[in-house]
Design brief:
Chain B: A scaffold on which IscS assembles Fe-S clusters. It is likely that Fe-S cluster coordination is flexible as the role of this complex is to build and then hand off Fe-S clusters. Chain B: It holds the Pfam family NifU_N. Chain B: This is Iron-sulfur cluster assembly scaffold protein IscU. The complex is a heterodimer of chains A (170) and B (127). With 170 residues, chain A is mainly alpha-helical. Chain A contains 7 helices and no strands. In chain A, α4 runs antiparallel to α7. Chain A starts with a helix and ends with a helix. In chain B, α1 crosses α2, α2 packs across α5 and α4 crosses α5. Chain B contains 5 helices and 3 strands. Helix content of chain B is 44%, strand content 20%. With 127 residues, chain B is α+β, with helices and mostly antiparallel strands. The longest helix of chain B is centred in the last third of the chain and has 21 residues. Classes of the chains: A mainly alpha (170), B alpha+beta (127). At the A-B interface, α5 and α7 of A face β1, β2 and α5 of B.
């Protein structure tokens, strides 16, 4: 039914991707299946083109973002990161999250402090993202990939909050 | 999404926000997080020598339902024994706060925070 996103966008199934190639293939396929091209066709064909376009957009957005891509690859392995029952995130990681959130709360009005916090978090995020390719390369490390991908969800959340706070200031 | 009156009440007037000394041998600290939504919850309990919870504090970074769930359980925990506390179920929290299905995981988080705090206390006291 739903085609593998990597197959759909004609790139090799791996965590490290050629982003330019992804962009190029996405644009090519978009042109090929764009609903405007099927304006004079029957409704069924038009509907098919719309569906396909949505699917390709979804695949592209998923693969373009490293965190969404990691989640998708885990999903292909039968692991759903958004499993709501899971709460046993490592304590030291949660402690760090608490501290960052407290810092954000304290400095909500302070642009410089927020930017400093954002830089620190960005660095952590990059370190985590850099670990993922090796984890996805080896089947034995699937659990490590799961752990990092889960943790990245928390990182994304606080980044969003900092972003919102910065917009409030400006 | 519309929050129930009880959720709004806890959200606007959270009970027992704060921290207890995590190095106190009578204090158990539970830390849990939900990767699905990025919420982080810290729940602390302080027990008497008889094993009765005399104080409970929480700090939650998350949505209104997560804050309300943790606020509510700090009220419920006080005066309970550890055994009674470990019997608190997420379904009771969800029911009390009238949480919609998409917010059930917030009550799961609160239940797991209680369990985590009790486990921390027990390991500290060598039981």
């Amino acid at each position: 039914m739903s085609q593998n996103f990597f197959t759909l966008l004609k790139i090799p199934e791996a965590f490290v991707i050629d982003v330019e190639r992804l962009d190029q293939h996405y644009q090519d396929i978009q042109k090929e299946i764009h609903p405007d091209r099927f304006a004079s066709f029957d409704n069924e064909t038009k509907l098919e083109s719309i569906k396909k376009t949505a699917q390709v957009n979804d695949a592209y957005q998923t693969l373009k973002s490293p965190i969404r891509r990691a989640e998708y690859m885990l999903q292909l392995h039968g692991v759903n990161i958004h499993d709501e029952k899971y709460t046993a995130v490592p304590q030291d990681f949660l402690m760090q999250q608490m501290e960052w959130r407290e810092e954000l709360e304290t400095h909500k009005q302070n642009k410089l402090a927020l930017e400093k916090l954002a830089t620190e978090i960005q660095k952590n995020k990059n370190d985590m993202l850099n670990q993922l390719p090796a984890f996805f390369d080896h089947k034995d490390h699937l659990n490590d990939a799961i752990k990092i991908t889960r943790e990245l969800n928390f990182i994304e959340k606080i980044e969003q909050h900092i972003h919102d706070a910065l917009i409030e200031i400006i | 999404m519309a929050y129930s009156d009880k959720v709004l009440d806890h959200y606007e007037n959270p009970r027992n926000v704060g921290s207890l000394d995590k190095n106190d041998p009578h204090v158990g600290t539970g830390m849990v997080g939900a990767p699905a939504c990025g919420d982080v919850m810290k729940l602390q309990i302080k027990v008497t020598d008889d094993g009765v919870i005399e104080d409970a504090k929480f700090k939650t970074y998350g949505c209104g339902s997560a804050i309300a769930s943790s606020s509510l359980v700090t009220e419920w925990l006080k005066g309970k024994t550890l055994d009674q506390a470990s019997e608190i179920k997420n379904s009771a929290i969800a029911e009390e706060l009238a949480l919609p299905p998409v917010k059930i995981h917030c009550s799961v988080l609160a239940e797991d925070a209680i369990k985590s705090a009790i486990a921390d206390l027990k390991s500290k006291q060598g039981k």
